[in-house]
Amino acid sequence: MIRYGILSTAQVVPRFVAGVKESKDGVVTAIASRGIEKAEKVAQELDIPQAFGSYEELCQSEDVDIVYVAVYNKGHYDAAKLALMNNKHVLLEKPFTMTLAQAEELFAIAKERELFLMEAQKALFLPITDQIQRIIQAGKIGIVHWLDSVTAYPNIDHISWFRDLSAGGGVFRGAGTYPLEYMQHLLGALPEEFKGTLTFPAGQSDAQAQATLRFPNGVLGTIFLTVDLDLPKRIIIYGEKGKIVVPDFWKTDTAEIEYSDGRKETLYSDQKSEFVFEVEHVNECLKQGLLESPIVTKELTLKTVAITEAIYKNNQK
Q1: Which of 157, 177, 180, 267 has the least C-beta neighbours within 10 A?
Q2: Per-residue confidence of the chain (317 residues) as pLDDT tens digits?
């Protein structure tokens, strides 16, 4: 069995644990918080055998093979580095790091110590995502010219640090990774050019973001993110013969193809946890002794971190 230790008791943790439990070869053996009381409470609620009151203790545990890092955004680098320096494989939640230099350092440490390191990006492992990619590659909607994404979180303040830019808060850093990497994955290409605009309420992190990407062969990607509006969350892939509409693309079990001749086709997948497919992939990588995912590659992660960092820098001049 692949034994997972979890750093953080954040809201994503119960859903991740459900994914591990549903997987064939995964088990959660430990969870850590910065206070033992909180760790013990969540461990009891989620039926996790061990609770630790510090991240160091979990990373030193002999009962953990891989550490899932789900701490607040700015803490990703430090937590992942701690795990790697204790010779643990790492699955690191998005956004991977705050800077490209941090991301490159983590991958260098992982390589030196022969450890597996991957950015958590569940959307790329969903059965629907695989179906969509196959449909595009088969030319069912013709040549793709445009991908358009809208993501809205009108009720975001349950995340206490979201409005704090210095803590890694902000809508683009928080949610931009999903469409950025989804588009690159579907097209099998990195963007050749990008630009973005962020809006900052006084003294706060970005509340709205718009990014444009130019991919090879003239394909365009547009991304809009907001916490100010309540909009349908979706990505649409436009081809010459039709389009694919994917609602809630980071967790969906359905999508619809609308052909130019008026025909429609609905895609379905049978899933309980949207996390299980990512977990199964990680488990398989570890069993094979891989140090890098062939899907969420080092190249994909570094490109996405570089784009995110550059857009923030360009909007804070």
Answers
A1: 157
A2: 999 999 999 999 999 999 999 999 999 999 999 999 999 999 999 999 999 999 999 999 999 999 999 999 999 999 999 999 999 999 999 999 999 999 999 999 999 999 999 999 999 999 999 999 999 999 999 999 999 999 999 988 888 899 999 999 999 999 999 999 999 999 999 999 999 999 999 999 999 999 999 999 999 999 999 999 999 999 999 999 999 999 999 999 999 999 999 999 999 999 999 999 999 999 999 999 999 999 999 999 999 999 999 999 999 86
pTM of the full predicted structure? Answer: 0.97
Q: Do 224 and 209 contact (CB within 8 A), yes or no?
A: yes
Nearest to 68 by CA among 130, 129, 23, 127: 23
